[in-house]
Amino acid sequence: MSSSFLLDLTQCIGCEGCTVACKTGNELPEGVSYIRIGERISGTFPNLVGGVDNQRCLHCSDAACVNVCPTGALFQEDGLTRVNQDACSGCQFCVQACPFDVPVMANGVATKCDGCRDVVRAGGTPWCVTTCPSNALLFGDHNEIAAEAHARASTMRAKYPNAQVYGERQADGLGVLMVLPDEPEAMGLPLDPEIPTVTEAWQDFAQPIGLGAMGVSILGAGLAAVIARRNHLQEIGQLNQAAAGAGGNDDEVTT
Amino acid sequence: MSDSNFKQPVVTEDGERILRYRPGQRYIHLLVAVSFVALFLTGLPLLFEPLSFLAAGGWSRILHRVAAVGFMAVPLLYLIVDREGMKELITESFTYDKDDLRWLGHMGRYFLGNAADMPPQGRLNAGQKLHHAAVIILGAGVVFSGVFVWVSAGTMSDTLLSWSMLIHNLSMIGLVLLLIGHIYFTVVYKALTSMHTGYVPKVDAEIEHAKWVAEIEAREAEARAAQVQSGVTGHAGAETADEKPSED
What we know:
heterodimer, A: 4-stranded mixed beta sheet, 37% helix, B: mainly alpha, two-stranded antiparallel sheet, 10 helices
């Protein structure tokens, strides 16, 4: 099953309830928070569009963090991006690669929202969703969440003409579909969060080709060494024979 | 020659073996070998997913940095222990004469173990020169990209990080391929003793590095002549020969 969150920024009141529930529920260490709330107001008075920034992992399908993670500590499961902290080497590549600045370091390893994996697997609902008092958060099957997001956006257009769904095509689709009161740019969201081509090139080409070249070279060198060593010994034998034939020279070539 | 000769004669007394690597050079080589293998082994888990569990917890990262310091110390230490040797290595690795080019043209034969009829070579054969030149260039690539990622961990942009890692990893793959070749030729031409005792049998050197042997013999003869001359002339000093004094 592919799960998703609905994050309705037309409903979010910025109460920080989700931040606190997440932090306590997941027993996050001091200084670490998976959700960061901020205010964002755009336009000029009196035509203001207000909103709340609810910065959190968006669970990209084509996730930069998963792409750059060299140990597989970041991985995808059930349509969400998970972290296995036991596998993390602390290289911080994910911190640098994420276009949404989501992963952070805690106690030397990377950490971020994992969609409350254990809670959900035990039949529960993620902490932030359970707590939200303004009906801004939902969690469930991706298709149902998408339908709900579109329904909410079209209702909202009566109030916010630019209201729209965000996250259906960004990074191959996000695991957090948002209902925005305004254009993504106005909400500080990238229209097209991109993974650098060079990252993709490494993962898709350079790495397998490099490893393949090493393997082939080792095998080839092993085989060729047997032949070449025999050739060289033969050559030395001939030189020694020639030297013995010429006489006088009792130097033995040994290698 | 160099200060760091550690009193090892250039030619053994029986005249059968020639000093190929001075002790300073051998220790530097050992440091390169140990630190490089350590860097490779601690870096591999980040490249080869089945081994990635070895990187968990960050221990390999700490070891990688310890080894990196050793690897980066190599040029500095080489400069200290054998400045002449380092200069020689760098200049020779980037200078190729006609014999070298001809040698490269016939490299396939040498690769398959036939050294006897190759064009005559100096202290380094053309393949070794190319090898060292590539090691210097790729080594610089791996060091600079590595230091860059090290000092700016967590703060650089994704594009910069990707480029640095691409350069780092490709340089390293190149170096590993060179190492495979290096070990290959060591086995085929049974060359390990030169790094162990410092000496190679003169008969072997004559086959593989004829111009180098000739050079050494000329220098030795010159030194002997100078010695004889200083012994003979003593303080009479009237009949000076026009020979240049030896560098040794």
